[in-house]
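Cross-check.
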Amino acid sequence: MDFSPDFQGRNGKADPFEKQGREGASRDTIRNKKQWTKVGSVPQGVVIRAGGLACQRGFRNEITDERRFMTHYLVVTAIGTDRPGIVNEVTRHVSGCGCNIVDSRLGIFGNEFTFIMLLSGDWNSMMQLEISLPLRSQEWDLITMMKRTERHQSLQYDIRASADLLIRDEPGIVSQCTQFFSEHGWNIQAMQSMTLEQQPFNLLKISFQLNLAREGEVEGSQTAFAEFCRQLGAESFEFIVNRKHA
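Predicted model, tokenized:
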């Protein structure tokens, strides 16, 4: 790093260092470098050159050392034709970039697989993955999406519930169920549905994991869910409430 004084000064006058010559000025400048570091400032007219870039006083590097060594989080979704070994190739590349797989979900839909991961790592690892994964995805014939996120902070709910129903498979059933829970104040934490192919018609099995913050709505929700399922003509249904114990 080269500390070079501006010999013209701010008003066009010769700098006092000029009397000593450039070599003497450089020695004096370097001798005072430690003092500048302590007070956190650089005298007017001094230009700091680092790595070939001139950085004048007041310039702040956007990527600080503290940020570089923080733990960052990234959500990655990969979609592509299911084939043996594809999940291994993705996870090996993630690990090779220095990222850790915190959580993951894998599902097969038709002939396609969907792989969702929550990754953690330092700034360099995340940048390496964000740059390299789209290129590797083209080689693997995958569609990938990435989004930075924060560490998940679970909301504290006093009441949890699970709801299951088996019903004739028709368009709009899942939408009606999610609308019902939304209207009754339930937060859907997880949902899974599966079509059971059989004669004379297919059945749809749906399971929900729910959270509720308001105690007073529990009993009403159980009664309303039973009535809702009967109106839909469900083959069977179940609503189980789990209260948090103090």
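Helices lie at 21-31, 33-39, 65-68, 86-96, 123-140, 173-183, 218-232. The two ends are 61 Å apart (CA to CA). Passed to J.P. for a second look.
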